[in-house]
Every structure is written in C-alpha cells, then in structure tokens.
C-alpha cells in the first residue's frame, strides 16, 4: 500500500490546462427534421429572396395608393373589384386606375398595385369596394427580399438549432444541413466492488452508479456516451479497457484515483500517454486526474473522476462539462442559460484555500445546501442544483444570493 | 369574403381556460439507459439498504477504536496487520484486540472493527502498523443503511430524470422504471401557398416554416411531434386532416385563423367539437383559436396558431408550451430554469390593453428588442429569447430589467 500524496493544483490552473486541450471537430449532414439541438457547422446564407415576391401583409384590397387619396368614412372612394387573390394564387389581372383586387394575407400583390387597404376600413357591395381610409404607397405590402435578400447572411457557424432557428432554415427550403458531429465519450467505472443492475447484491458489492449518471451527464452536454463499462480496479484490466476506446474523443473513468490502495489509473495513463493533472484543490473531488493518450488522429483526452457519485458529478460539472460543451459547440448558449440567483437558507462555512461545490435543494425560492458526504446517494435524489464557493471565500451568510447551477442540460 | 371580427379575450382568461383542460396521462416502462429527460410516473422507494454493508469511507486501517486511545505522533500505538481488504472483497478475519486490517475506500468493515484510521496518520513496517492519531468509534465508517434504508422514500412521481436522478436509481440496481409516456402532438400547417423543402418555388409560393419549427418546439416541451403536414386552406382538406389525428393528444395548426378570406379553421372546429377561444388580446398572435374535439378516450385539444412564423412561435411559447410542459410533467422544472433578468437596450413602447411578446437579441448582457414584423424570418434567425410586456404596461424604459425567456427547452 503506497502513501503517495497528491500534489494539489489550483482549480483555475486546471481550467487553463483544460482550455488548452484540443480535439478535432467533425462535420456531418443531417435532415432538418433531425437537427433539433444540433450545432451548425458552417455559416448559412439565404438561398432565396424572402419574401420571394411582393406580398400583402394584411387581408384587404390591393390598390394604387393614389386612387385612395382623400378617402374617409364620410367621403369614401369606390373602386371596382376585378379579382380575388388568396395566398398561393397567381394574380392574373393588372390593377389600373379605379380598380382593386381582394387579397388575403400572404397573397402576391397584383401588377400595378402598391398598397393594401385593410378589410376593416372598407365596405363592399357586389363588385364595388368602398375605401374608407386613404393609404400611402407601400402600406401593408412587403416587397420581395425585404426580409432578407438571396445571398445575405442568415445564421452563423456555431448556432444551436432550436425550433426558431430550424424555422429560419425551413424558410430557405433546405432539407439537409451540415452540423458538428457529436463528440464521443467512453464512460468507464472502475472498481472490484461494482456490479450491474439486476445482478445479485453479494456482500461487499455495490450497484454501479457512475456509468449511468455520467453517460447521461454526457448527453446533457451535446455529446454521445459510448456503451458504459465496469472494469476491475487493476492495471491490466484498466489498460485494456482504455486501449479499446482509442477511437473515442474523450474517455471518462471514475474511481481508482485516490492515493493509496488501488490507485492504478495514474500508472496506466503515465505508461500510455501523459498525466497533466493529478489532484485538484477542490472539495469534493480532490483526487481527480486529467491526461492525454495518443489517439488515431488527435490525442484522446482522459478525465479520471473520483469514485464517489457526488464527487464524480461535481467534478464533471465543474471541469468536464465546460470542455464537452465547448467541443460540442454548445458552450456559449448553455452558459447564457445557466444559473439563477437564490438566497441561501443558512450560513455556509467552507475551508479556505479549496473551492467547494455544494449541492442544493430549492424550496420556495430558497437554496438549501445538502450537507451530506459525497458517498450519499440521497444527496443526488434531493438535489436541484449546486453552487460553487470560490477558494478565497470562507463564509457565505444566510440569505446571501448565490448562483445556483442546474444539474440538467440539453 | 367575410368581415367577421374576432371577439378578443384577455390573455389571463385564456390561460385559465387552458388550465382547465385535461388530457389523460399514460405510463410506460423504459430502460434506465433511455430515461434521460423522462418523467417518473410513480414514487420510488429504496429497494435496498445504502450502503448495503458497513464500509470504510477512507483508505486506511480498520481498528477497534479503543485500541487507538492515547496514540499520538510522539507516542504511537502499534497494531498487527492481519488482512488487506479492498473494495469488493469480503473480509475473512475478525479484528481482535491489538490487530487491524488494511481497508480501501468502500471496502466492507471487518467484524470487530468500529473505525478507520486514515492511512495519512499511520506508518507501516512489514505487518506492524503504527497509529499516530487516536480515533473514536464510527470514525471514517459508514453504517449499513446510513444513507438510506430499504423501503424509505427516494424520488417522487413527477421527477425529471436528469443524470443525478438516474444515478440515484442506478444505486438501487434498477434496470427499468415507469415514466409518463410523452404526449403526442400533431402539427399541421395550413395554406395554399405552402410548399415542402426542395419543391420548386413557383410564383406566390412559400416554403413551409411552421411545421418544422413547431414540431421542434414540441420536442423541447417533452412531447413527441407526429409527422408534420401541409394542408390546403379549405374546409374539406382541413377537416379530413384533423380527423386523421383524433388519436393524438393535441393538434396544433397554423394559418387559416384570421378573420377574412380563408378563415376555415373555426368552422371546422365548431362542426367537429367546440371552439373555446377565438382571438386573444395579444400582439403578435391575435387570431389564435383554441378548441376541443371528441377523441378516442378524452378530448383532443386543438390550438390554431396564426400563420406568420414569429406569431406562431410566440403564441406557442406564451400559451401552448406551458400546457404541453404541464401534461408532459416537466413544467415545474422548466419554469425553475426559465428566464434571466437583463437590461433593455432601448425604450420600448407597447400598445396598452394588449400583451406584447417581443423577440430579443442578447449582446454583451443587454437585451435588444427585434423590431420586425411577425412575418420576418430574420427575426427568428437573430433571436436569443423573448420577453412579455403585460397588457397594462405601456412603456419600458431603456436600461430597465426585463425577464428574458429562452426559446430553447429540453
């Protein structure tokens, strides 16, 4: 049994190291119908004029505006109705002096017309339309290309495709678009004590938690978890398993990082590649390891998280998630959306010199810290989010506003 | 061409009507691996004790605490090492006076031991362990069931299954769980002018936007969109299409709700069921229709949205999304997460007596209202969210804090 003490690194330094890591982004083409929550891999320019033709923007009558000048409720001007044009129709008659055509919203403007009089300020008797209000040229008409002209910039590379953005792409008649391929993440739980669901719970054994919880946390960052695995906590098993995932973009292990009995991960990573971080000055999650392994094209990044489920998830949120979001291209949006300020339910005391991640339960808009150890499963069941206590803060007073980060994501 | 004016209803009254609607919830069983972002359909009680056995919560030596009393760095107490127990092992030897066993974090406590001395405060020479610090009974030990006992409450019906909650369920060794089936939503675009992607853009035609954007907005509320459709804006086509979706939970149409030319939806709904709302005092989206149709078991709820894409999405977010989130069981969580306060970039003037929904672009933490008409596709491309101006507010000053709601979701 070794007694190797970890050389703890400052969280900010660790974040800088993570920030300098790089993985190649791949591009793939998807149908617009499968593009929800995907990220545009190129700038999109309009392929058509929008609207594609001069159109009515109200239900009413297409007129020559000058024919309506002087019209009022007391002194209406009467025009002759020559055609009815609904959205989707093609007008066949030209508007000449003294005439008008009925138009529905979205209908093409007939030749010769330059404005639409709303139906609400007209009266109609057979084919005679009384105009009760004058209009100026351009009223209730949208010119071809007035929203966007063909060839103009529409959406930028990196846009997260929510419903509204997919709507904008649909307007171009696009069927497929290029998006970033989702980064692949292998999730490996290490530990001789771990068993799979439905297996018999013999003495000394535990159902594996981290492979499911981390796989789902990976999904919430816009990445694809590869099949989850349990491996024995010995050098050869772990090395073989890690070797099997050299085609993944990222490998996340949990367990096997503590100084002391069973710390084999650092040895495996050292032998296969490079250990960049081993030990972070945070609580929980101190024994975290970060390294790189030579991959097929670029290096595979490996995050070795602690075995305790709460520690593993907190380190995931604090260090791994920002990296995954970055390479998946969803970082900016997620951070725009992340976090809400709530008052703390009680005084919280933190050890100076180490950042703390604290799970909270939200009740009646107050954040209540969950003060359980990081092996507690019930902490996961109760948590609505977490907050971070920076390393130079020792006490947060009751009622002070804290920024609660959600545990959910995409 | 009719001139039927809409009888505008107050938005709060409309929300009350929507709140009184009901659809039956269905339950289905899914594998834990497919449970991400699903909603628990029943309370979950622990099926086992957690931890399932007395375990060490640190790397170190399992001892009888009383054997360590008086130990200090200057005056260590020496114990005889009788066994090495790693996580996953089953201890075979009992701790008696003067003996100890090496334990890894998570290893079962050997019989007779009641505390763990951390490896950091020990020295070892062959099988002689020097204890440099006394411990009290229970130190660094977690008793069986101390986190949660078998049969105790773990997670409640209605919980959204994020990574952490799935972790808590994994701890029970569960393979499958009951979740609410996702409500099904048929999305129908009406309009003679609408064409599908890749079709030829003839004069007077437009690529359909709403069926894609609304289908994706439906997904973001935890519901399943059924295949999207375009139908002609005539009574028979629309009625046939609506009839085809009587097995859906909800039908969303867009277009065909304006007073004037082509308003056939209200007639169809009136003939097939009941119109509850036709016209809301909001901008954009005034001509919105809400109705119910007799379904196979319970009524099908129909939302008839305006045809303009911005109007359709704004009414979706303001009125339809809260209902979908409610019946999908994700409302509470989404609303916890929704909305952030930002200063407005410029004075905004709104017409009194009508609620306004305004799209905004966020730049450098300032919300800039997008002042385009609701037919503008570029507004969708630029938008980062929207805010609501209540009906009794006429002016929001530059710099005033507004609550920006995201356009994204699950």
TrEMBL record, chains A, B:
<comment type="pathway">
    <text>Cofactor biosynthesis; molybdopterin biosynthesis.</text>
</comment>
<feature type="domain" description="MoaB/Mog">
    <location>
        <begin position="186"/>
        <end position="326"/>
    </location>
</feature>
<dbReference type="InterPro" id="IPR001453">
    <property type="entry name" value="MoaB/Mog_dom"/>
</dbReference>
<dbReference type="InterPro" id="IPR036135">
    <property type="entry name" value="MoeA_linker/N_sf"/>
</dbReference>
<dbReference type="Pfam" id="PF03453">
    <property type="entry name" value="MoeA_N"/>
</dbReference>
<dbReference type="InterPro" id="IPR008284">
    <property type="entry name" value="MoCF_biosynth_CS"/>
</dbReference>
<dbReference type="InterPro" id="IPR005111">
    <property type="entry name" value="MoeA_C_domain_IV"/>
</dbReference>
<keyword id="KW-0808">Transferase</keyword>
<dbReference type="InterPro" id="IPR005110">
    <property type="entry name" value="MoeA_linker/N"/>
</dbReference>
<dbReference type="InterPro" id="IPR036425">
    <property type="entry name" value="MoaB/Mog-like_dom_sf"/>
</dbReference>
<dbReference type="Pfam" id="PF03454">
    <property type="entry name" value="MoeA_C"/>
</dbReference>
<dbReference type="InterPro" id="IPR038987">
    <property type="entry name" value="MoeA-like"/>
</dbReference>
<dbReference type="InterPro" id="IPR036688">
    <property type="entry name" value="MoeA_C_domain_IV_sf"/>
</dbReference>
<dbReference type="GO" id="GO:0005737">
    <property type="term" value="C:cytoplasm"/>
</dbReference>
<protein>
    <submittedName>
        <fullName>Molybdopterin molybdenumtransferase MoeA</fullName>
    </submittedName>
</protein>
<keyword id="KW-0501">Molybdenum cofactor biosynthesis</keyword>
<dbReference type="GO" id="GO:0006777">
    <property type="term" value="P:Mo-molybdopterin cofactor biosynthetic process"/>
</dbReference>
<dbReference type="GO" id="GO:0061599">
    <property type="term" value="F:molybdopterin molybdotransferase activity"/>
</dbReference>
<dbReference type="Pfam" id="PF00994">
    <property type="entry name" value="MoCF_biosynth"/>
</dbReference>
